[in-house]
């Protein structure tokens, strides 16, 4: 049983609808007239400053009726297969509200399938994006043919989409999950891969202590982190991921790409996240050395 009241669920949904939709609309308009360059993370944050910078890949964006796809312009160079990230939007939002963040991950070599749904809680539309790419991987003539790494898929989403990321993470095709300021309607007990639960210290919509931390605690059966970004509110991730961009990129580079430098941000005595002053609360359930598949 979920440890919250129905009243709280309604309050969260109502506040998201009132606040996220206008923000998404404004950001979509702003994207038409501003460049997509990323600002560097805070100078005192090793994770933010290093992994928040753009990757080496040129990015292109494609659309289907159900998904918006972000990917490296050149796929499969040297026989490389690209790991997949599936994305879920906050309530009432579309991928355009997070466009710079999704482009950022593609610049680091990932194929990103962002569900076009404005209600991502079930995680099913997100999983459909992964299945679409797996089908394209097997289809001769597709630009994705034999270029998708079917064994490395991560789910991530914001707010309602964060709950969707958890619910998608119950599917065996998902290897790792990042619930970003996730809503409460999720079952973390069903996760079967490592998870990074992210909260905003000043989030007045998805309260860190009442919602995000309990979700993390319910995922005790898998390697998991809980990290709370100092000073961040609920809309910190909108557009380019804000202060969350670097740590999410490092996590996916660690879990989906086997990047040893990224792994050092989460494991061993030099764990970068554990001592980074940009984060007001960092916890691990003691099994964080699960590594990559």
Automatic annotation (TrEMBL):
Coiled coil feature spans: none
Keyword annotations from UniProtKB, A to Z: Signal
Signal peptide residue numbers: 1-39
One of the Pfam families matching this protein, by short name: PETase
Keyword Signal in record: yes
Positions of the PET hydrolase/cutinase-like domain: 49-261
Superkingdom field: Bacteria
SUPFAM superfamilies, per database record: alpha/beta-Hydrolases (SSF53474)
Name of the protein this chain belongs to: PET hydrolase/cutinase-like domain-containing protein
Organism whose genome encodes this protein: Saccharopolyspora taberi
């Amino acid at each position: 049983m979920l440890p919250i009241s129905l009243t709280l669920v309604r309050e969260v949904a109502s506040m998201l609808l009132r606040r996220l939709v206008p923000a998404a609309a404004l950001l979509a308009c702003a994207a038409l007239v501003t460049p997509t360059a990323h600002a560097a993370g805070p100078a005192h944050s090793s994770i933010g400053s290093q992994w928040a910078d753009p990757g080496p890949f040129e990015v292109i964006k494609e659309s289907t009726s159900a998904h918006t796809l972000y990917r490296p312009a050149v796929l499969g160079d040297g026989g490389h297969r690209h790991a997949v990230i599936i994305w879920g939007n906050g309530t009432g939002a579309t991928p355009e509200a997070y466009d710079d963040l999704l482009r950022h991950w593609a610049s680091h070599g990932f194929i990103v399938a962002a569900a076009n749904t404005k209600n991502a809680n079930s995680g099913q539309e997100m999983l459909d994006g992964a299945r679409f790419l797996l089908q394209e991987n097997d289809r001769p003539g597709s630009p994705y043919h034999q270029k998708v790494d079917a064994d490395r898929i991560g789910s991530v989403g914001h707010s309602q989409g964060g709950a969707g990321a958890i619910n998608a993470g119950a599917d065996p095709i998902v290897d790792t999950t990042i619930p970003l300021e996730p809503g409460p309607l999720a079952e973390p007990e069903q996760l079967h891969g490592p998870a990074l639960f992210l909260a905003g210290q000043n989030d007045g919509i998805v309260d860190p202590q009442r919602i995000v931390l309990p979700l993390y605690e319910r995922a005790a059966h898998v390697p998991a982190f809980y990290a709370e970004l100092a000073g961040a509110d609920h809309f910190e991730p909108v557009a380019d991921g804000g202060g969350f961009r670097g740590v999410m990129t490092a996590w996916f580079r660690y879990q989906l790409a086997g990047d040893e430098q990224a792994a050092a941000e989460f494991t061993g005595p030099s764990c970068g996240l554990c001592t980074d002053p940009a984060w007001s609360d960092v916890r691990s359930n003691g099994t964080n050395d699960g590594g990559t598949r």
